[in-house]
Amino acid sequence: QVQLVESGGGLVQAGGSLRLSCAASGRTFSDYAMGWFRQAPGKERDFVAAISRSGDNTYYADSVKGRFTISRDNAKNTVYLQMNSLKPEDTAVYYCATKYSYVGSHYYTASIDYNYWGQGTQVTVSS
d(Cα 38, Cα 86) in Å, to the nearest integer? Predict the structure, then answer.
């Protein structure tokens, strides 16, 4: 079992920045690939960013590419999402997720691939 706890959400003006954190516990963090997803009211949960268990490979949704950066610190069992140049359309509940990865270089972009989820953190961007 893996537990994930997100933090760092809040209210920010358009153009501002936030950094989300997701702390993991329960298993060897470096064995797990990580991802960030978001869900706006009335919409489906969408992929945002993913990182391999090694941290060497990352992937982003087109909507956030160039503005968001995913990273991880395996010594701290934490994955981060640095969000810059925020837009009102980035408003959503942000979730981190994880799955065991047999291959160190793989990342995963489909929510169905992930086994464990955090409770989410609200990000609100005002115009």
Answer: 14
Phi, psi of 31 (to 5 degrees): -90, 0
Terminal alpha carbon distance of the chain: 40
Interatomic CA distance for residues 123 and 115, integer angstroms: 23
User: Looking at the DSSP assignment, which residues form a beta bridge with residue 38?
Assistant: 46, 94
Q: For 40-77, what is each residue's pLDDT tens digit? A: 999 999 999 999 999 999 999 999 999 999 999 999 99
Block residue for tokens 């961007």 = 125
Phi and psi at residue 88, to the nearest 5°:
-55, -35
How wide is the angle at C-alpha 101 spanned by C-alphas 98 and 102, nearest 5°? 170
User: Measured between alpha carbons, how far is 73 from 31 in angstroms, rounded to an integer?
Assistant: 13
Low-confidence ranges of the chain (pLDDT < 50): none
What is residue 1's DSSP assignment? -
